[in-house]
Structure formats: structure tokens, C-alpha cells
Design goal:
Beta-lactamase; about 475 residues; alpha+beta; 3-stranded mixed beta sheet; globular; 2 domains; 6-stranded antiparallel beta sheet; 11 strands; single chain
Length: about 475
């Protein structure tokens, strides 16, 4: 009798222990979700984000998939809302190229000209030498800092590649890293030439459909047919961005998807699938090239837990980022329908998959608006002092000094700063980039240049008056 009771008690105790363990796990999981939610909400507030979708996988389990904010039409942003992932498209194009390598249809060390006979840049030698691997690694020797051609937005991949015929090189192939979108557009054309299929068709059949990414497309007509608008931020105020779909840039930056599909893509990158691509090929893609931190469609860096494999994507009005730690089977992805240079959500999402909760927050909007107010007051002061300059009577030497000072400042603002950013800091600078991603900064920058040009004009005008007065007196 006592033995039966004792056995029953043991069973009850065991059930209670299991119940408490499960309850504790659920409580901890709920606390994690609450902490992540709170962190993202703070980012939305601090950066005045229009809309964001976030997916997080930790230790091979999906622990978070949420969207917050609204679409451009005012409807609630959902996990099925179409969004651009910008340069995350490169990893998908790279994946497709590596499939062709595994099928022995191409070799990484083959020159691209072997498959695209009409491929040509300004240097005939470079045209012959650029390999498929060079393009994947962004070591083609080509760069956005040279004479990049203007091409119509609806131009095909073939038309775009032909337009590169006069492009100047910045280095030999395989020597230096230069991030260049057209490297991956050329690879998109390679897929077409080798398979005999349109890029969009191959991606649909070999990447998107096998991964269950049923709402992801690289088809230009489909992308253009969807009314997907992003937003830009001017000192924290969200404004709808212009909608420019660049057909030839689809392999490098215009694949259209949604959060649901990107979570599937993240899961594939973590768990892998030999039916899509082998582990060895994955490792090749995730190995940085010589003198570089870039592999094949991915940046690679080391942390305590292992390697971080990641890539960002930026378009006018959109921003995305995907990162994973293969050693812990963890990763995250986010997509925003707003873009701005200032953001720090990446660091906090990386902390989540590393099991940390000491999140960092910065009141970007508040600081930007304070800076805007200061710049506005300085601009008003400069405009007022420029106006007063017209009333002043100075010596000829003073006006000469004033004109030289204004000319030097105008040259420094217009050419000097871009030169420093491009050549000394190795940033791909362009005025178009500044206008697109930091329009608030651009307003005051161009205003500062305009003020110096006006000051130069006033000084020259005063000098001419002085000379005329001197001649009349004589």
C-alpha cells in the first residue's frame, strides 16, 4: 500500500517539476519578447520610423516576427506587406551564381568575357581578366567613383552592361575591394547567358520557389505594377520618397519581398539545404577575399561567438539588414519602409541573438532637430551678415581678401569635403547620395555653398565699383 502511494507521490512530484520548468521557460520567453518589443518601440520613437518588420531566430528557433508602423497608404504594415531589401538582393544573386558553379556550368576563375563576349570596359586588359570570383568579391577593379554611365531606368541587363564600355578602372582585378553595384548586375546577366532564361525566371524557379518565398519577385513588370513607396527623413519628419524602379539594378538591389519570405530566407541561411546548395559552397561564400572583409554577397567579421555574416541594403525610402552567427544557429533580419543615414538598431538586434539585453538607445530625432535649429540660426546669421556686407565700405585690399576667403570656402565645401570623403576616408560619396539619404544635411550644406558664392559675388562687385570710382576720380 505504502509503496503504491510512494510511487504516486514520485509521479506527482515529477509532473510538478516538469510543469514548473515549462512555466519558467514560457515566462522567460515572454520576458524576452517584451524586452525585444520595448527595444524596437524605443527605436521607432527615437528615429520616428514609418514602418519596420523584424524577424529573429535564436538557436534554430523563431523567437520573434513582428511588424510595426504603417505602409505608405496609411494601412498597418504587416508581414505580407511588399518591401524592397535593396542590396540584400546581392546575396540571392550570389547564391544563384554558385548554383551554376556546382552544376559545372561555370567556374569561379573563368573570365566573365567567356560567357558575355561583348563585356567591355575602358581597359581591354581588365576586360579580358575580370573573373566571376572578382565580381562576387567586389574586386573587379571597377568602382562608382569613376565615370559611371547614365542609363535609363527601364534598360535591360544587357543594355546596362554594354553601357559600361568606357568605364575607367581604379585598380587591377583581384587586388582591392571596391563596392560596386554593377558587379552583381553583370552576374545577373551571366545567369541569363548561361541558363538561357531571364534572370527573374531563374530566380523564381531555383531560389524563391524552392525556399517557399512565394511573395518574392525579381520580375520588373510585377515590381513596377505594385504601388510600393518608401519614405525619407528630414530631421525626423517622415516624407514619401520618389518611386524609381531601376530594372537593370534588380540583381544588385531591387528584389521585392516581405517579412514572411525574408524569415524563410534567414532560416535557410542558418539551417542550410543541400538541395539548394552544399555546405562547402556556403563556406566558400562566407569566406572573405584577400585584403577584404567581403565574401560573396556577404560581409564577414569576427566576434567572441564566432563569425558574423551580414549585409545591409539601402534604397531611397527603404532599408534592410540581415545578420547571422552560424556557430550559434542564430540570426535576425529587418526591413524598413524608411531610410536615413542615422540608425543603430543593428547593434541591439545583434545583442538579442547573443543573449544580451543591455540595449543602447540614442534620441536621433531630438538631436537632429537641435542641430537643425543651430544650423538654421547660423544660416540666418550668415545671410544677415552677407546682406550687411553690401552696405559696408572697405578698402580694396579688404574686398580682395574677402573674395579670396569666400572662393576658398566655396571650393572647400563643394569639392574639398567630397574629395576628403572619397579619397581619404574611402567613402563612395556623391551629391545624389547626400540628397537621397540625408536631405536635411543637404539643405544646409547647399545653403552654405550658396552663401559663400553670394559673398564672392558681392566682393567682386564691390571691387569693380572701387575700380570704376578710382578711374572716374583720375
Amino acid at each position: 500500500m505504502y509503496e503504491r502511494v510512494d510511487k504516486m507521490n514520485k509521479k506527482v512530484i515529477l509532473i510538478l517539476i516538469i510543469f514548473l520548468m515549462v512555466t519558467q521557460i514560457n515566462i522567460g520567453f515572454a520576458e524576452d519578447i517584451d524586452a525585444i518589443d520595448s527595444m524596437i518601440e524605443k527605436h521607432i520613437k527615437n528615429s520616428n520610423l514609418h514602418g519596420i518588420g523584424v524577424g529573429i531566430i535564436k538557436n534554430n528557433e523563431l523567437i520573434y516576427k513582428e511588424t510595426k508602423g504603417i505602409e505608405s497608404d496609411g494601412d498597418k504594415l504587416t508581414s505580407t506587406s511588399p518591401l524592397f531589401v535593396a542590396s540584400l538582393s546581392k546575396s540571392m544573386t550570389g547564391l544563384a551564381v554558385m548554383q551554376l558553379v556546382e552544376k559545372d556550368l561555370i567556374s569561379l576563375d573563368d573570365p566573365i568575357k567567356k560567357y558575355i563576349s561583348y563585356f567591355q570596359v575602358e581597359s581591354k586588359e581588365l576586360s579580358q581578366n575580370i573573373t566571376i570570383k572578382n565580381l562576387l568579391n567586389h574586386q573587379s577593379g571597377l568602382s562608382t567613383s569613376t565615370n559611371l554611365p547614365d542609363t535609363e531606368n527601364d534598360a535591360s541587363l544587357k543594355e546596362r552592361v554594354r553601357a559600361l564600355s568606357n568605364l575607367n578602372a581604379v585598380s587591377e582585378n583581384g587586388q582591392e575591394f571596391h563596392y560596386f553595384n554593377d558587379n552583381y548586375n553583370i552576374l545577373g546577366l551571366l545567369i541569363e547567358e548561361v541558363t538561357g532564361k531571364p534572370y527573374a525566371t531563374y530566380m523564381e524557379e531555383s531560389i524563391f520557389r524552392p525556399l517557399g518565398m512565394n511573395n518574392t519577385t525579381a520580375e520588373f513588370s510585377v515590381i513596377r505594377g505594385k504601388e510600393v513607396y518608401g519614405h525619407k527623413s528630414i530631421y525626423g519628419f517622415s516624407m514619401q520618397a520618389d518611386r524609381d524602379i531601376v530594372r537593370y539594378d534588380i540583381p544588385s538591389g531591387f528584389i521585392l519581398t516581405n517579412l514572411n519570405d525574408m524569415v524563410k530566407y534567414l532560416s535557410f541561411l542558418i539551417e542550410k539545404n543541400p538541395k539548394i546548395i552544399s555546405d562547402n559552397t556556403f563556406n566558400t561564400m562566407r569566406t572573405a577575399a584577400q585584403n577584404s572583409e567581403y565574401g560573396m554577397g556577404w560581409y564577414i567579421r569576427d566576434i567572441n561567438e564566432g563569425k558574423v555574416i551580414e549585409h545591409s541594403g539601402s534604397l531611397p525610402g527603404f532599408n534592410a539588414h540581415l545578420a547571422l552567427i552560424p556557430e550559434t544557429n542564430s540570426g535576425y533580419v529587418y526591413i524598413m519602409n524608411q531610410n536615413h543615414m542615422f540608425r543603430n538598431i543593428n547593434g541591439n538586434l545583434l545583442k538579442v541573438i547573443r543573449g544580451k539585453t543591455d540595449f543602447n538607445h540614442f534620441p536621433f530625432v531630438l538631436v537632429l532637430r537641435i542641430i537643425a535649429l543651430i544650423l538654421l540660426l547660423l544660416a540666418i546669421k550668415d545671410i544677415w551678415s552677407t546682406f550687411k556686407l553690401t552696405k559696408k565700405q572697405k578698402s580694396k585690399d579688404a574686398w580682395i581678401k574677402g573674395s579670396i576667403k569666400a572662393l576658398v570656402m566655396a571650393i572647400f565645401l563643394f569639392w574639398g569635403i567630397p574629395f576628403i570623403l572619397t579619397n581619404l576616408l574611402n567613402l563612395n560619396f556623391s551629391y545624389r547620395y547626400v540628397l537621397t539619404y540625408t536631405p536635411g544635411l543637404a539643405i544646409f550644406w547647399f545653403l552654405a555653398i550658396a552663401i559663400q558664392i553670394i559673398r564672392l559675388g558681392i566682393s567682386i562687385w564691390k571691387l569693380l565699383i572701387k575700380n570704376d570710382f578710382t578711374l572716374i576720380t583720375k
